[in-house]
Design brief:
34% strand; 23 strands; Glucose Permease (Domain IIA); eight-stranded antiparallel beta sheet; mainly beta; Membrane-bound Lytic Murein Transglycosylase D, Chain A
């Protein structure tokens, strides 16, 4: 049983706690609490959670590349349920009004939501900006936010980015404006949800018609992430970066790869063909 302390004139501890020495453990209103030097205290469960958050925004925190877990993509994950409203009061759909153009497939890793240029794009959950820059592989102006439950959301084709790397954002915070930068045929938002770099269908937990969550929790498992036998089924594509090439007379894999500044190996892998596969006129190949 913890001794009961009356905490008068003692400050609740916020932020980093590593510089504060623990001097005692007490009970406050039936909850375990820790007393620190400097007349500060914190509930034990909240303190433990803050340590997890500190690690979340430092470990695998890559700000110059869209991928931050390069060594974990082929790892079979332990199933766990995450709280979608971790450290957040509510979920906010990224757009006030939109028309859904395209959904999630094995080769398209998010939702395309049509909206006028300049419409405000908002953060779906609380989190911290990990990436905010222009990328030439199709995303254009892209913002990536890591959330307190380890999910990351991607907002791309923006006409303008309104946040910076390491900014703390709240759900509903404006992160950019709708645009058509990158490889986009018109103004729209390409919205993705990822767990440790692996994209999965946002419609698994978001209702786009009601612009709300289907559930407050989400089961992270290999089937959700398209993983089986240690290998990812979902292609490691970059959202809208893929396009199609229709075979015409005289085409070869070498000519196609040269035209699109890619490699024969990459085309073969993405289309599940070999270098000796006979190309048919009218056949469509996915180009990375």
């Amino acid at each position: 049983m913890f001794p009961v302390y009356l905490l008068i004139g003692v400050n609740i501890l916020f932020g980093q706690t590593t510089a504060n020495a623990i001097i005692d453990t007490v009970e406050v209103e039936g909850r375990a609490a820790i007393l620190f030097s400097g007349k500060k205290w914190a509930f034990l469960d909240e303190y433990q959670k803050s340590l997890v958050y500190d690690s979340l925004f430092t470990k695998n925190w890559i700000t110059k590349d869209i991928h931050s877990y390069p060594s974990q993509k082929s790892t079979i994950l332990e199933e766990k349920a995450i709280n979608l409203l971790e450290n957040v009061n509510n979920f906010v759909f990224p757009l006030d009004s939109f028309k859904q153009l395209r959904g999630f497939t094995g080769y398209h890793t998010g939702l395309d939501l049509k909206a006028p240029t300049g419409d405000t794009v908002r953060a779906a959950f609380d989190g911290r900006v990990r990436f905010a820059s222009n990328i030439r592989n199709g995303y254009g102006n892209l913002v990536i936010i890591r959330h307190y439950n380890e999910l990351e959301t991607y907002y791309s084709h923006l006409s303008k980015i309104l946040v910076s790397i390491d900014d703390d954002v709240k759900s509903g915070c404006a992160v950019g404006l709708v645009g058509s930068t990158g490889r986009a045929s018109g103004p729209h938002l390409h919205f993705e949800t990822r767990y440790r770099d692996i994209p999965f269908d946002p419609l698994k937990f978001i209702n786009t018609e009601q612009k709300c969550l289907i559930s407050d929790s989400l089961l992270i498992c290999n089937s959700l992430l398209g993983k089986s036998s240690g290998k990812a089924i979902v292609s490691d594509t970059h959202g809208d970066s893929d396009e199609y090439h229709t075979i015409i007379r005289g085409d070869t894999l070498y000519k196609i790869a040269k035209k699109y500044n890619t490699t024969v190996e990459a085309i073969c892998q993405l289309n599940s063909i070999s270098k000796t596969t006979i190309l048919r006129i009218g056949q469509k190949l996915i180009i990375p």
